[in-house]
Amino acid sequence: MRVAVAGFGGVGRRLARLLLERGGSHGLSLAAAIDSRGHAVFDSRGCVEEALSAPRGGLAGVSCGAPGSGPGVLRGLGYDALVLTTASSPGTGEPGLGYARAALEDGKVVVAADKPPVALLLLEHGGPPPGLFYKATVMAGTPLIDLLRVGLAGRRVLRVVGVLNGTSNYILNLLMEGVPLEEAVEAAVRLGIAEPDPSADLRGVDLALKASIVAQTLGCPVGPGDVVVGGTVYDAAGWAPGLRGAGAALRYTARVDVAGCRAEIGLTLHGAGSRLYSLPGSLNAAVIGLEDSTIYLEGPGAGLGVTAATLLSDLVLSRRAGGKPPYFPAGL
């Protein structure tokens, strides 16, 4: 299977390395990459290494590169699967949405880490369309989406409550220790946990997208704009300090209620008996309520390495049954 990568930043490059190291054992090869200014069709390992050393947006300048990007470029790439590591607008889903539509319409597999186009594609198709794999969009290093789509086949999911944004969890943990918000944000950026501008995480834009994706995976047509926002991390700056001493923890959570097809995000307090009470650093966690039991899932939700590895996992899955997802219908 020949793989093209749209979005050749940190995650895209980490995936390219994984494909060079492990792709052959899974029948995968890196065919091409696209960035914001150009593209490269890889005809040798040397050209891949050259692209990996190029600056961001520099694919057009490598020996196997050329100017031009956008969905129209896909037609000449000779690929079987498209990986989306683009950074798309939460409002329009572009540029990732255009790439994904073009690839799916051409019968290709799409493996995505980019949340806005996935949330909008799910809404357009009334659930996951054939050929779309997207577990890297939510709890990137922990297979929540696969659990909901595969592991719980035939089970009735009532609700999902989760801490699904590592940046906000890391910052809230520092706030509860008495660290001022500005210093907490600076620490998160310095460690690479947060983007240089983490406002999308702190205002709930990222969390609302994830809540929408989880809801739609479970058969509820909840778009990102339908998610109820009940507060932001900024609201916690004044009252988070001291909560630990009072035996409480503050989390920025998403809640999806399947029966009512409702999704909401907001700040929630958790006592020592809650599964979400002890969640250090930037860890993610989800509590899945079933009609007869509860499942707790915890693990990394972000990071270049775990996201790239999860994309590789979806590529391996996509090769089963001629590229059709080995999943049951989303509606439970």
Keywords for this structure?
single chain; HDH_short; 7-stranded mixed β-sheet; homoserine dehydrogenase activity; 21% strand; 10 helices; alpha/beta; 6-stranded mixed β-sheet; 332 residues; Rossmann fold; Dihydrodipicolinate Reductase, domain 2; 31% helix; EC 1.1.1.3; 2 domains
Q: Summed up, what is this model?
A:
With about 325 residues, the chain is α/β, with parallel strands linked by helices. The protein has 10 helices and 13 strands.
Describe the protein's architecture and organization:
The protein is of the alpha/beta class and 332 residues long. The chain has two domains: 2-138 and 305-323, Rossmann fold; 151-301, 2-Layer Sandwich (Dihydrodipicolinate Reductase, domain 2), CATH 3.30.360. It is 31% helix and 21% strand. The protein has ten helices and 13 strands. The strands form two sheets. It has a seven-stranded mixed β-sheet, sandwiched between helices. It has a six-stranded mixed β-sheet with strand order 9-11-10-8-12-13. α3 crosses α4, α4 (115-125) runs parallel beside α9 and α6 (166-176) packs across α7 (181-190). L-homoserine binds at residue 195.
